[in-house]
Amino acid sequence: MDQHIIIIAVVILALSFDFINGFHDTANSIATAISTKALKPAYAIMLAASMNLIGALTFTGVAKTVGGKVANPANIEHGVYVVAAALIAAIAWNLFTWYYGIPSSSSHALIGSLAGAVIAAAGISAVNLAGFLSIVESLILSPLLAFTVGYIIMSLIRLIFANFSPHKINSRFRSLQVLTAAFQSFSHGTNDAQKTMGIITFALVAGGYQSTVEVQTWVKVSAAVAMALGTSVGGWRIIKTIGTKIIKFEPASGFAADLSSALVIISATLFKLPVSTTHVISSAIMGVGSAKRFSSVQWGTAVTMVSAWIITLPVTMVLAGFTFIIVRFLFL
C-alpha cells in the first residue's frame, strides 16, 4: 500500500481513538458533578468539552513520552503499520469496555497495544524496556496516590466542617464542584489527548515524515478537537458506573474526588508521565468513600473495575500482536 495512504489511515484511526477516548474517559470527569446535581448533564458536557480542548492545547510533554519511550520509531521496520495495528486493537478494546459500561483504561489499552504490535513486528528487543516500565510504573502508582489523596482530602473536609449543618455544607460544595469539574476536565485534556498526539508523532517518525518526536501544530490541534468532540457526545454508560455504582455522592465527597484526581493527573502531566485518568478518578472516589465509611464503597463494583484494569495491558498486547500479523499478511 502507498505510504501516503497508510499514514492518512493511521491519522484517521488515531483521531478516531481520541474521539472514542473523549466519550469513554471524559465522562469520568463530570460524573460526580452530575450525580450531585451540581451541573445539569448538558452543561456538564459542554464544560468538559471546552476545558478538555484547552487542556489538550497546553502541554506536549506526555506526547513526547508516548512517541519515544515505548520504542524508537525510527528503528521499527514497517512502523506505520505497527501503529495502525496498535490503534485498531486499542479502539476495539475501548469499544468493548464502553459497551459493557466498564471504566477501563484507554491509556493501558494504547500503551499495551503499541508494545504488543512492536513485539510482533520486531521482537521484544525492539521495546525500550526501561521506558516502557517507567510508563507502567506511573500507570500503577497513580491510582494508589489518588486513593491516598482522596482519603486525606475527604478526612480534612469531615474534620473542618464537622459542626456545620448538612444543608450549608451541600450548598457550598455544590457550587465549588463546578470549579473542580472544570479543573478535572482540564487536567484530563493535558494528559489523555497527548497520548494520541504521541502515537501520531510515532507514526510520522516511523514513516520518515519527520526526524524527531516534536509534536507538530496540526497534530496538536486535531487531537485536541477530536477529544473535545468525543466529549460532547457524552459517555453515559461510564457516567452511570462512576456516578452511582462506587459510592453514594454528596457535594462534599464529589468535590473531594474531583480535586484529588485532578491534582494527581496535572502533576503527572507536569512530570511528562502518561497516567490512566480512569484509574486515577475511580481510585480517588474509592479513597473519598473510605474516608467517610469503609463499607460505603461498593467494593463489588470496584473489584470488577480493578479486574478490567489488570487484564487490559496483557489483552491489548496480544490483540495488537495478532492484529499486526493480519495487517502484515494483507498489506506487506
UniProtKB/TrEMBL annotation:
<feature type="transmembrane region" description="Helical">
    <location>
        <begin position="107"/>
        <end position="127"/>
    </location>
</feature>
<dbReference type="Pfam" id="PF01384">
    <property type="entry name" value="PHO4"/>
</dbReference>
<dbReference type="GO" id="GO:0035435">
    <property type="term" value="P:phosphate ion transmembrane transport"/>
</dbReference>
<feature type="transmembrane region" description="Helical">
    <location>
        <begin position="251"/>
        <end position="271"/>
    </location>
</feature>
<feature type="transmembrane region" description="Helical">
    <location>
        <begin position="306"/>
        <end position="331"/>
    </location>
</feature>
<feature type="transmembrane region" description="Helical">
    <location>
        <begin position="139"/>
        <end position="161"/>
    </location>
</feature>
<keyword id="KW-0812">Transmembrane</keyword>
<dbReference type="InterPro" id="IPR001204">
    <property type="entry name" value="Phos_transporter"/>
</dbReference>
<feature type="transmembrane region" description="Helical">
    <location>
        <begin position="43"/>
        <end position="67"/>
    </location>
</feature>
<feature type="transmembrane region" description="Helical">
    <location>
        <begin position="218"/>
        <end position="239"/>
    </location>
</feature>
<keyword id="KW-0472">Membrane</keyword>
<feature type="transmembrane region" description="Helical">
    <location>
        <begin position="79"/>
        <end position="101"/>
    </location>
</feature>
<protein>
    <submittedName>
        <fullName>Anion permease</fullName>
    </submittedName>
</protein>
<keyword id="KW-1133">Transmembrane helix</keyword>
<dbReference type="GO" id="GO:0005315">
    <property type="term" value="F:phosphate transmembrane transporter activity"/>
</dbReference>
<keyword id="KW-0813">Transport</keyword>
<dbReference type="GO" id="GO:0016020">
    <property type="term" value="C:membrane"/>
</dbReference>
